[in-house]
Amino acid sequence: MNNIFEINDENISKAADVIKNGGLVAFPTETVYGLGANVYDPKAVANIYAAKGRPSFNPLISHIAEIDFLKTYAVVDERVLALAKRFWPGPLTFVLKRIDENPALDLACAGLRTVTVRMPNHQVALELIKKSGVPIVAPSANKSQTISPTTARHVYESLGEKVDMILDGGQCKVGVESTIIDLTGKDVVLLRAGGIALEDLEAFLGQKILISHGNPDLPSSPGQLLKHYAPAHDFRINAVSREGDEFFIGFGDVKDCDLNLSVSGDLCEAASNLFAFMRIADEDGRKIAMSPIPNEGLGLAINDRIRRAAYKKLV
Ligand code: TXA
Ligand code: MG
Description:
Mean pLDDT: 91
Oligomer: single chain
Number of helices: 9
Bound molecules: threonylcarbamoyladenylate, magnesium ion
Distance between the termini: 50 Å
């Protein structure tokens, strides 16, 4: 367990350097431990999905340390600001319309036009974010489909040495994940019940909150809950070669492609390029085709994502 570090200034600075250099840091928040990376580093974000063994690209929560930062990131209206002032730092997460169009953010947002943000109520988390100088994207620091960790030891037991540093902040106070609300429309929609009670939110807003049918952690049918970005143009998957004037996205040893997700066949590199390449292809305007992706490791998540993108074209 020599990747578990006690909390002191030196170790927080060290962890911030790990984040800046594209590594993974597990850190305490008031809810559960998060598995953090620089939100603007798609390779680091791909490593989060790989370490967790997530079979699909769920959008991840960006953790920020200052409300002011929100304006550069998302559409912030009076309602968002009021909620942030009242409940942040704290276990409340907002899904907002995205302003920051930096393609480096695409993987963290799972290709959506929304960003998911919260300010954790934990000194260590806040210092780590400030010292890193970027939002830290972090799902719970556990293997996919397992229980969220509330101690550093839980993180170690689930992820072991896949994490560069685990900051040991003791037991998380709240112990359940944050409440997630969707603020992109006129209504406020609850996507996940969590650390802030629905009643408290309704009392503050003076309006009823709609309950989304389903749990974002347990989608009853893929794609039902998360409205995924799909290219506007025809999108053919498992394509062994280009047909006609298609925009061809290759993988591995593929000649004659417009872009290659990873010449060396590295699935992490492919995942980190996926969304950005799909954007470029879509902007190009031709029909799109993509090489087969091996269905292992991050390939599962890549295939899940591209199947959904291609499926839309069949209906
Ligand atoms: O308390 C927490 O929220 C912890 C700590 C580390 O901050 N984080 C956490 O993240 O629980 P995660 O990734 O394990 O769970 C976030 C959930 C995922 O199931 C994801 O699908 C959903 O939130 N989610 C995120 N953005 C969404 C969006 N735009 N629309 C629908 N669901 C979203
Ligand atoms: Mg989780």
